[in-house]
Every structure is written in C-alpha cells, then in structure tokens.
Amino acid sequence: MLHLAAPTRPGWLPHALLYTEEILIDHAHCEKKAASTALNLIFRYVDQPDLVGTLSALAREELEHFERVLSWLSARGIALRRLRPAPYAARLHAAVRKPEPHRLLDTLLVCALIEARSCERMRLLADALPDPELAAAYRALLADEARHFTTYVDLARRRFGGDVTDTRLAVLAEHEARCLAEPFAEPRLHG
Amino acid sequence: MLHLAAPTRPGWLPHALLYTEEILIDHAHCEKKAASTALNLIFRYVDQPDLVGTLSALAREELEHFERVLSWLSARGIALRRLRPAPYAARLHAAVRKPEPHRLLDTLLVCALIEARSCERMRLLADALPDPELAAAYRALLADEARHFTTYVDLARRRFGGDVTDTRLAVLAEHEARCLAEPFAEPRLHG
Fold first, then answer.
1. Is the link from the previous residue into B87 a cis peptide, with omega within 30 of 0?
2. B24 in Cβ contact with B133 (< 8 Å)
3. Contact A70 B53 (CB under 8 A)
4. Domains, chain B, ranges and CATH?
5. CB within 8 A of A190, min separation 6: which ones?
6. Does this complex have an ipTM over 0.85?
7. Cβ distance A31 to A63 under 8 Å?
8. If you measure CA to CA, which chain A residue comes closest to B54?
9. pLDDT per position as a tens digit, A57-103
10. CA B49 to CA B47: how far, in whole Å?
C-alpha cells in the first residue's frame, strides 16, 4: 500500500532497539527536516495555491510531531543533540531531475517515499519496543505518516495524472530501496 | 508596551488602504517568512530545548496565520504571487552582531521587533479597513502578534537577563524605526 519496493532488512530493527536513545534523537531531527522540506516547497512553488495550503498544514503537523518527540526525549532525560545524518535523504534527492516540471514531480514522490519508509519503520518499532508508552506513541504516529505519503502522492497525481505519477513512483521506489541497501553504521530511522 | 521607538508615519495607512490586495499578498509572505525564520533558529540552536520547543509552537502558529491569509485571498479571488520584498527585514537583520552569544540575543530581539511592528500596523488596518470582515480578521490576529513579541523577548530575558535584554532592545528599536524612515515605494506591511 505504501509502494515501497523492498521491506526493511532484518538487521535494522535489532540494531535500532539497542540504541533507542539515538533513534529517538534522530527521529526528532527527521520531523524537523520534514517540516523544513515542506516549507521550502512552499517558497519554491508559492504561486500554486492548493500545493501551498496543503503543505503548510502538513508542515504544521510535522512540527507538532517534532514537539511530541521532544517531549518523549525530555520525559526520558535525553538531550537533543546534533547527529551525523544518514546519507539516505541526500541519496534519495539525488534522483530528482533538475528541469521543471520533472523536478516538482520527483520531489513530491521522494517526499512521499520518505514518509512511507518512516511509516514502515515506525510500525516495526511500535511492535517491538519494550517500553509500552513509547510503543504506543509510535503506534499513534503511524496513521499520520501514511496520510502524509498519500498527501504527497495526491499532489503529484493532481498535477501529472495517475499514470505518469505511478510510473515514476515505481522507478523512485526502486531507487529508494537501493539507498537503504548499504546499512549506515550508526543507528538511524532511515539508516 | 511593544517597545517600538517610533509610531508608523501618517502616510503609510492611506497608501496601504489604496492597495489592500497587495498588502494582503505581502502579509501572506510575511507569515511564511516568520515561520521560516523560527524554523531556521530551531536548526541553528537545536541543542537548546526550551528555545526549540517554544519556536516550534510559534512556527506552527505562523503557518496557521499564513493559511488564514491564504483563505482571505482565496475568498476575494486574489492569487498569491511573488512580490519584490521591502528592504525592512534585511536592513533590520543587518544590525545583528555576528559573534555568539550576541547573535542569538540580537536575532531574538529583531524577531520581537518585527512582531511588534506587525501588531502596530495590523491594528491600524483593523481600525481603518472598510471591509468589516477583513477588519475583524485583522483584529483577531493582533493578540497573537503581541504574544509573539513577548515570546521572543522572554526567550532573550531567560538567557541574557532583563537588563542586558532591555538595553539592547532599546538600541535595536531605534534602528528598527530608522529602517522604516525612508518609505518603500510599493505598498507593504513593513514598507
């Protein structure tokens, strides 16, 4: 349903569970980055009213998630700190074609795939985290992530049609899976 | 109460009322820019938890205001378009000292002063706009703008103390008034 070309490799979850603290910190950064990406798209495509309004509401939700993760960190006495980012997002965005309108189509679909992967991995965490409060907190986020995937794909469909969108989504989904084939050494949500 | 060093010059309001459409479009850009500025501060000072949480909530409110202004535009059949920005914000930020911690203090106070000026001018619009719906909409925003001023000043006070903050705020308020002394030719919220 989330159009991912490959499931997360079996080794990711045990590694993530060993380093929950770092995964939580990385998760906070991911929500912040998701808000920033949506806001950058608003600046770039400011003359497209439906895109701008939709992405503003989405950015607000990402910030609300960010604040939620901050509260989980704070409740556990964990300080938010800078982390070396996994190369995932940069690799994924490298597949975006530069000329418009390809650039917009690809960017929307790359954003969709990041949401889809977040959703898949948060579900793994929700099912496996020994801390029941944290597991429940992740379960509560899943539906939003899946909805964000749909929001980005729908923005693409409305502009580029179903066929063009689905064909390109399949290509980028293969690329997304390849971006994760080589594991990042440090524990990350998208490692 | 808003610590502005000088009130808006008498010529601004009649000019703004002649070009309400352009003022509304500029206002949308201002709310978007305010969200972006808060988000940039979150990225820069990510290891300061109270600042990060406070500014995330503030950025969400700016985005909610942005969506509100989009709905006013849409109800009036006005398309959001790019505008040449007034030099106000760039002039104002030029007074920010580069070395930390001065940079943080000055940035917080510059943000506070922009909110204060927005509040002052929105009140002028609320009292003078012939469209009663729009006048009421501006009146509804005023309290938020004033609160945002206080939010930024409080963030500064908690870090730098009341005396240092107030002294620097007075200096920057004088600078803010000078940034508006020479009117911008095109109608702008901060023109």
1. no
2. no
3. yes
4. 16-181 (1.20.1260.10)
5. A30, A86, A88, A89, A114, A117, A118, A121, A180
6. yes
7. yes
8. A67
9. 999 999 999 999 999 999 999 999 999 999 999 999 999 999 999 99
10. 6
Q: How far is B106 from chain A (nearest CA, A)?
A: 23
Give the minimum alpha-carbon distance from A161 to chain B in angstroms, rounded to a whole number: 24
List all residues 6 or more positions away from B16 whose beta carbon is below 8 Å from its beta carbon.
Answer: B23, B121, B124, B125, B187, B189, B191
Residue B106: predicted pLDDT: 98
CB contacts, 8 Å: B52 with chain A: 70, 80
Question: What tokens were used for B78?
Answer: 């006005």
Tell me the backbone φ, ψ of residue B12, rounded to 5 degrees. -65, -45
* Mean per-residue pLDDT over chain A, rounded: 96
Calpha distance A55→A78 (Å, rounded): 30
Q: List per-residue pLDDT tens for chain B, 191 residues long.
A: 788 999 999 999 999 999 999 999 999 999 999 999 999 999 999 999 889 999 999 999 999 999 999 999 999 999 999 999 999 999 999 999 999 999 999 999 999 999 999 999 999 999 999 999 999 999 999 999 999 999 999 999 999 999 999 999 999 999 999 999 988 999 999 99
Task: Please tell me which residue of chain A has the smallest CA distance to B38.
Answer: A36
> Rounded to an integer, what distance in angstroms lies between the CA atom of residue A191 and that of residue B178?
50
Place of tokens 């009130």: B7
Residue with token string 């440090």: A186
Cβ-nearest to B49 among A46, A52, A79: A79
Name the minimum distance, in Å, from the CA of A98 to any CA of chain B: 22
